[in-house]
Amino acid sequence: MSLIWTEIGVDVTLADALAKNGLTEPTPVQREAIAVMLDGADVTARSQTGSGKTLAFLLPVLQRIDSASSSVQAVVLAPTQELAMQITRVAQTYGAAAGIRVVPLIGGAAVFRQIDNLKKNKPQLVVGTPGRIHELFVSRKLKLGEVKHLIIDEADQVFDLGSSREVDALLKGTPRDRQLAFFSATRPDAMADMERKWMRDPKLIDLAGKQRVAETIEHLYVVVDKRDKVDAARRLVRLVNPSSALLFLNDTDNIAQWESKLKYEGFTVEMLYGDANKQRRSVTLDKFRSGGCKLLIATDVAARGIDIPSLPLVLNLDPPIDADHYVHRAGRTGRMGKQGLVITMITHQERFIMDKFSKRLGIEMKERVMAHGKLVTPDEARLIGTWSKPAGLPGSREAGSKPSFNSRVKADTAFGSRPERPSADARTSSATERGTYGRASAERSADRPRFDRSEQSERTGAPTGASRGAQRYAERPSAPRQEEPGRPAERRDSSSDKIGGKPGSGKPSSGKPAPAMTKKQQKKAAKDKGAPKWLKAKRAEQQPES
């Protein structure tokens, strides 16, 4: 038994159960909340995700429940089925030591089985989602007249999901002197309104402060094109190589597409989304916790509050919609003081989101680049491109020598920066060298004897190419060109060797001038212009030329 637990008011039986599970020291939120809740005051506790809020409200509630009574004395509400089942498992673990019976009432399960479970087990503590507990309460299958404690875990999400009316109805059905407690990592306006409406002199426990995310979590982001996100996610998982990773999406419509693409890349992938039935979600979570799959793709609602021991990586395929959602996503890793890593993939237009989260949450968001099989800073990536090969290998340079300008250009352009332009002195010297080499080449060519084809022709008696062409032109017969008065001269076509040939036909004409057309022929030609061939032939048969 740990004396530290008993010092803050925890019963010896519960302290022994905590020590058996390796929990020897309470967290800060547990120290603050347990003492206040044991006094019976209303509580609003705001603490980092993964700081141990579940035991902070379960331990005092279990300790104040009368195990001899068969009525429901405490109700715990959670926004999702997974979180409700997680709280149920913890409550059953420590409630068994105190003789407390716990029954889960969550949506997606068969109602008649839950009703039978209530009648058979007669629980003192029920844990469930607001919709299902409200349904059983309205149908008078669940009696809340003797409830002494009502706790809402992840209260901000419960009210954001539109459960305020259901919570109001449940609070109206409980006694006025019951204890009300809200636990969450954030405190939105809807949650503050419910506090003012239903709580009596609440005690505010705010341990989040400016650092709303655990200090043991490292926050990185990678800039990629939207069309390259699948390939970037594959490379990131290969580089980090975690034992398991939780991948977050904003849109449920894309979750099946992501699953198929990552499976094609060779990963074991499962999906967790709000529209899936209870059995499918439960099997998926159990498989992920046991190591049956490496990647779990989820949405914010489905993954809210789930506890996955020692999760090393959270990968945001889409940036969260606001800072509060980033807090809950990041809280899936680095829980209870362990190390964690959060990587967010963004486009160039979404850089401002990382700056906003950094200022709002008081955390440092670092940019990383995937280069040469490493996850490095942009500056380190540029240096990697200019590193020389080891001495002795082909293409290597001596130690201490500067990289060539071409290698620096290639490295800089690979990361979107312009290469350095050579200085004016370098350009002047380069031009001088080119001029010197050009003059030397001209002098060498002047000293070299030239080969004259005319001299060869005189020695051999054979005509050169130019003389042969002139001889053929001189021997070509010239025909007199005859043109009719008032008629334009016929153009010479490249495909005909004689004037008067049909352009493009390649057939020379007879050399005789074409006879003049009569008025009747001119009228017929104008009429036939643009007509199809079959119509021209028909007209020629009907009106033969005279």
Provide keyphrases for this structure.
7-stranded parallel sheet, Rossmann fold, alpha/beta, elongated, 546 residues
How would you characterize this protein structure?
This protein has 546 residues and is α/β, with parallel strands linked by helices. Among the domains are: 3-206, P-loop containing nucleotide triphosphate hydrolases (Rossmann fold), CATH 3.40.50; 217-367, P-loop containing nucleotide triphosphate hydrolases (Rossmann fold). Helix content is 43%, strand content 13%. It has 22 helices and 16 strands. The strands form three sheets. The chain has a seven-stranded parallel β-sheet, with helices on both faces. Helix 13 links the parallel strand 10 (269-272) and strand 11 (295-299). Helix 4 packs across helix 5 (81-98). The longest helix is centred in the C-terminal third of the chain and has 24 residues, at 424-447. It is elongated, with a radius of gyration of 44 Å. The protein starts with a helix and ends with a helix. The model is unreliable at 387-422, 426-434, 451-460 and 486-509 (pLDDT under 50).
